[in-house]
Amino acid sequence: MSHNSQLTTGEKQKAIIFISTQATMVHANLLSSFCSVRNLQCNRSSEITLNNITRLNNVGATCLKEEKPTEASRCLNRSLELLSDLSSALHTQPIKKTCPQHYFVKTLRSTSDVNCSSNEMEGMSFPQTPSSASVSKMLYIYQRSQYDEGMQTFMEPVVIHSMEGLSKDLYHTMIMSIVLYNLGHVNVRTGDDQRAAKYFNRAMVLTQVLDQYLDCTNSDVTIACKGNVSTVAVLHNLGHIHYRSGRYNDAMTTYERALAIAEHKFGPHHIDVASTLNCIGVIHFHMSQNVDKAMEFYLRSLAIRRAILGNHHPDIATTLNNIGRIHYMKDEYDNAMVVYNEALQQRRLFLGRDHLDAGASLCNLGQTYHQKGELDKAMELYHEFMVMAETRLGNNHRDVAIILRSIAKIHHEQQHFDKAIEYYTRALHAGRAALGDTHPEVASTLNKIGNLYFEQNNLDEALKAYERGFEVEKLVLDADHLNISVTLNNIAEVYKKQGKYTHVLNLYKRVLSIQCKHLGQSHPKVANTLGGMGQIYHQRAEYDSALRVYQKALCIRRAAFGHKNLAVAATLNSIGLLLYKQDLFKLSLQCFKESMCIHVLLSGKFQPDVATIMCNIASIHLHTGDENEAMNLYREALTIEREALGCDHEDVVSTLHLIAKVHLEQGKLTEALYYFQEALEIERRIFGNDSMYVAQTLSHIGNIHMQRGEVAKMMDAMTEALRINKRSGQADEELAMSGYDLYEISLKHPECAAVA
User: Which of 374, 561, 628, 654 is most exposed by smallest CB count within 10 Å?
Assistant: First the structure.
């Protein structure tokens, strides 16, 4: 090689550097090509995975809409597994820039495990539904909320649509939030609220991050994300879990969060704001029956909906129904009817006459007419709804059972006992078919059947119905539930009529314990039970015990209602009777007079209770020797009873007997005979000729004829009395008159009716 071809040392070094650089560049190009191929494969794989995830979610959502929660759960859980795998893959790739997507990947990894803890739900428990008993208890909570409307907002599963224009990480985050949200709905449908809440909370972590990102991004991305789950929707579902479990304070907090977010995001005039206001109104309604506060939120919701939707829309009818319910609860029946009618017309217009929502408005109207006493119109609407419900839902549905009970109640009030039994029995069969044999509504129907038999004095059948209802309640309610106290009280009323006073007292004590625990010792219902106990102690001649419980009842009623109240007047009358029994006539007279003054002040003079108290005051005057004043009071009482009750009434008969016996004691046989004969004519009309009441009055008449020496008339009266007595299987000695207990028979004590 020539000298010119030789490389200097410097040139050699440059050549080495050049070759090394070229080799590095080749290696880098090869590596870059390899990475590009790998990333392309990875991107294609992730796109396929995202498509599969989307497809599985949408199939799951469809299954859920078709009430197939098992199939929905299978699809959505598989979708969640694929998302978790994809999250891990994304986390291993280099992130080219710091932006919200970096946080998306980390968030996905933390939310993919649904069993991780959540500070918001920590320490909270939710009702489970694995056993029949717990199912029934949870459903019983729903009784109070069955008339709430508009609480089902955001209750539908979400289908994923095309989200073109979004980055892969953003799309991935949105899909994850939707899948978790839909899994929450699956668990709501299967009754696992605790697990549902965990899914909803995982979804909310993502929706909050997305909200923050979308607040600072361009409008094109925001539009592309329109199909995503909102934080407001998730909060509505969490609030609904609290609501249907009866945790109204927690529900209120959750819905208020949803309202704040909706107003911040959309402004105060938005459909989501209106929906949330409606839900808050419902919660206020259930929190101590705060109906005025509830009305405030309903009206705000209605104003927004009218402004956005116009005056005619199904959502308008929803809020109108809730407003009508407030009027109904406040006894503003005319206002309720106006609102319910508007809701009915809108639902018929938009949903059709046979839609069940229109049927709900029909039922609401029927109840309003029922409360107004327009029973024929109420019955017409109830029957219209019943036909619709049986056609759409079948004969064995809860709504059918409810309307059958309403129809039975009208027949009951109209004294159509056979028809009432027929419809209560149908309601019982429908309720059992729809809800099972052990459900509180089944127990309630049995109680109503018991009340019906009780009013007909069919005590054996009444007791059977009450006890069957009690057996159901023991299975599905806590031992100290207030409804159990109602049933125990009804059973006690049967035993009272049967004279089983020891059983009655034991039951009253159990009722009192339950009421004091739930209502407090100063509640009017506690006073009612104390009053019942006082009557039993009175019957057992335990006057000190009776006076003690009556005085407690009087204190409670005066504190609750004031001094001028009919319940206070009734208690004063009872105390007056006890004081009379203990020969404390002056104090007894004071109680009777105060009681009568309250009745006259509040109800007027011409009503039966005033006549009863007059007879009691007359008895005191008889005992203290003032027969003229006693007779004047008896005659005034008789005038009041004839005016208030009509001539053919057993109270009129009782007072006629009292007047006749006073005349008899005074030796005025003609006057005594006149009043006994008048009483006999009424007894024949109202009790029949073969009644023991007729026999006893004939015996009194026979004794007067004997004293007057009218043997033939005496024989006629006594012969007929003996004939009736023998037919009734009574002893003849019961007709032999040996004198009259004027004071015992004249003291009247009203009985307690069964509790509905």
Answer: 628
Model pLDDT for residues 433-471, shown as the tens digit of each residue: 999 999 999 999 999 999 999 999 999 999 999 999 999
State the Rg of the chain over Cα: 40
Cβ 162 vs Cβ 173: under 8 Å: no
Q: Which ranges in 330-416 belong to alpha helices (H)?
A: 333-351, 356-372, 375-393, 398-413
Residue 23, C-beta contacts closer than 8 angstroms, at least 6 positions apart = none
**CA 309, CA 198: separation in Å to the nearest integer?**
35
Name the DSSP letter for residue 120. T
Longest dimension (CA), the chain: 181
**Structure-token pair, residue 402:** 């409810």
d(CA 730, CA 281): 65
Extract the runs of DSSP E, i.e. beta strands, from 531-674: none
Query: CB neighbours of 518 closer than 8 A, spacing ≥ 6?
Result: 480, 482
Distance, in Å, from the CA atom of 241 to the CA atom of 125, rounded to the nearest integer, reads 11
DSSP 228: S
Which is it for the CA torsion 140, 144, 145, 149, positive or negative? positive
CB atoms within 10 A of CB 306: 16
Contact 312, 350 (CB under 8 A): yes
- Categorise residue 520: left if φ over 0, alpha if ψ from -120 to 50, beta otherwise: left
CA separation for the pair 487, 467 (Å, rounded): 8
Residue 486 has pLDDT above 60, yes or no: yes
- Exposure of 460 in the CB half-sphere (CA atoms within 13 A): 0
Indicate the burial class of 572 (C-beta count within 10 angstroms; 0-12, 13-18, 19 or more): buried
- Cβ(474)–Cβ(435) below 8 Å: no
Q: d(Cα 520, Cα 308) in Å, to the nearest integer?
A: 47
> Tell me: the pLDDT tens digits for 698-738?
999 999 999 999 999 999 999 999 999 888 776 655 554 43
pLDDT, mean over the chain: 83
Percent of the chain with pLDDT over 70: 79
Distance (Å, whole) CA 245 – CA 134:
12
